[in-house]
Amino acid sequence: MRISVPATSANLGPGFDCLGIALNLKNQVIIRPSKFHSVSLKGEGSNNPALKDNNMFISIFNDFYYNLTQKKRHFRFEFFNEIPLSRGLGSSSAVIVSAIASAYAIEGIKVEKARLLNLSLAYESHPDNITPAVMGGFNVASVHENEVKFITKSIPKTLKAVVVIPNRPISTTLSRKTLPYKYSKEDTIFNISHSSLLTAAFMSENWDMLKYASADVVHQQFRMKHMPELFEVQKTALKNGALMSTLSGSGSTFFSIAYSEDSQKLELALKEKFPHFRVMSVDFDNNGVKIEI
Ligand SMILES: Nc1ncnc2c1ncn2[C@@H]1O[C@H](COP(=O)(O)OP(=O)(O)O)[C@@H](O)[C@H]1O
Ligand SMILES: N[C@@H](CCOP(=O)(O)O)C(=O)O
For the complex shown, is ipTM > 0.95? Predict the structure, then answer.
């Protein structure tokens, strides 16, 4: 059985914990029953010993597999990872979603995407990464009475993402602890109105509105001040054709959207100015998690 799951960029500026989008940058895993437990890792994280000895995918998969079957079996796991760890591209959500989906799929049990999403919520309480990881596309997601309520919109091929990935990892859990405990009424109104405008812009494909609607005052400035070069990344992106440019999740990646015909110019400008960062143009993903038996 093979399963693939996309990277995700959460928040998109003002939509803290509720907006997210899926990228065609994927983790894949092949799982086969085996006499012994074994793991092979290629790509991102392959030189990280924790991923061999204490792998979050394997522990979530084993828990779900045991709860579903009451059996303990051995498997061979072959991981091919494209999503960098702890860079704000939803690596943990990708692991959670794909581990739960695999435990069901390997037993031939069908699980609806909405159910998979709600099972994933037990491991990540904010739904802005897990929803696009499951569904693909742009997503607005809220937790209402312990259930994720969401609306998905496909992204047309005329748009591309350009990501700038610094070498520095940032743990989402730690980064959330550095945010203010309280916000003023003005800042709250600012973010609610911008997040609503941004959602309407995606839904109506009014791409020229993204630049204004993607402004945020609740999290980016507090996170970016620990890596001030990111302010320069944002300025350079907006000067070179980005329709919007925001911190991806909790960082350290910076995420921009451009018309496909402008994305190469944007990628080159960012590569030239920030040669020490990884810069890539990436298509959007409109499928979400995919399972092949
Ligand atoms: N491919 C992977 N395999 C196993 N665990 C992973 C993988 N990718 C991420 N993780 C786990 O998720 C953690 C990163 O989560 P987090 O700080 O939320 O970063 P991100 O912003 O990438 O989601 C890692 O420290 C690791 O425990
Ligand atoms: N809304 C969350 C999103 C975290 O995304 P990640 O990709 O950094 O895990 C936050 O801003 O903390």
Answer: yes
